[in-house]
Amino acid sequence: MTSTHAPANGIHASVTAGPRGLPLLGNLPAFARDPLAFFCHLRDDYGDWVPWSLGPKPSLLVSRPEDVGELLAGVEVTFSPVDLGWAMHQVLGEGVVTSTGADWRRKRALVQPSVRPRQVRSYAATMVECADATASSWTDGQAVDVQQEMTRLTQRIAVRTLFGVETAGREEVVAGAMAVAQEAIGAELRGVTVFLPSWVPTPGRRRLRAAVARLDEEIHRIIDEHQAASAAGRERDDLLSRLLTARDEHGAPLSQQELRDEAVTLYIGGHETTSTTLTWAWHLLSGSPEARARLDAELTEVLDGRLPGFDDYARLPFTQAIVKESLRLYPPIWLITAVPRPGATLGGRPVPEGTTVWASQWSVQRDPRNFPQPDAFRPERWAPDAPDVIPDHAWFPFGGGQRTCLGARFALVEAVLVLAVLARKWRVETEPGEVKPHTGLTLQPSRPIPATVRGNA
């Protein structure tokens, strides 16, 4: 089959009129109630190129994969990244995600070597070791909170691979601060505080400042320990140690504040997104006996009772497909935004200056034109011989172009290996019923997902 993107099911690519908005607020109330449903509504009822307004700010939603690909490729060329807001900057600082232009290029060049495939290979043993410890801690018939279990596990992996330390108390400090950040960023995005000056002291902002202060104290303490160890000749093999030794083209290292910002960014990329993906994957697998049976067959054939290693990542295509399908249905990063530079176009059409361009992983990855039965969990759609060809840029959970997520490879390898380690011993049976996503820093379940662990006989 071809990968052309033809209108279907009432979706009309030629429609350009957008929804009417309220004075001053524009479409903010509808967006704030449910951003995910709002994007799908625009796509289905107005088309692939839909003008709308977030408060007084003109916006444009694009839904064609071709336009998404052009937008991703154009960031830092014909488009500029959007300021992600006060709350996001409080957490990420001026790291590689939030910086732009020459500053971004410098930081990307410094950070990228630490997450290349060769380095990810060196972290695989830690991923497997931590996952095996979790598997050994479970008992048959045990009741667990899936998200809590996956969060603890990926925190442990992130702390060990990023900081090279075991921290009984530090994980809780970082996790508590990140939980506050999740809520604060989501609340700012969905509410009127996004338009308030940074000096307005709302209750949510006060909570976030306190949480970030705790986070900064812990991160700076770990950085100081690494610098002291390096000065004493005790080298460590972790991400932070690599950042400490990185030098730009002028021979300059990352400053103390830059180290903090990149450490937090890598922590979020290596923990927050992976724990969310694994949480959704267990819930989806629990409702699909067919997928679970295929997973068991692959793990038995490839692993034959042993623990996986890095090289097994390539030998577990169906396990990879489960992760990819989970990322399709519940992408942790659920939107990208950019603003046009003078003369910018998408699909040959000019984009008005001052317009914020939006593309939503949620709506594009659940578009029936890109994925038949878009709301169904079907890992087999990722098989090389699958009958339906997936259009380029119809799946972009890690973004794309020059600003694609640097930790994408790390996250995929981690999710596949962790899933393999746990699934070879256990079935995680979640309680049936819909779990709606909550839009914050990442796309989290809106409620706990209780489950029962059963031995995988």
TrEMBL record:
Q: Which Pfam families match?
A: p450 (PF00067)
Q: What is the lineage of its organism?
A: Bacteria, Bacillati, Actinomycetota, Actinomycetes, Kitasatosporales
Record-linked InterPro entries: Cyt_P450, Cyt_P450_CS, Cyt_P450_E_grp-I, Cyt_P450_sf, Cytochrome_P450_monoxygenase
The molecule here is called Cytochrome P450
Please name the PROSITE patterns in this protein's record. Answer: CYTOCHROME_P450
What GO molecular-function term can you cite, just one?
heme binding
Which keywords describe this protein according to UniProt?
Heme, Iron, Metal-binding, Monooxygenase, Oxidoreductase
Q: Which domain of life is it from?
A: Bacteria
Q: Which residues bind heme?
A: C405
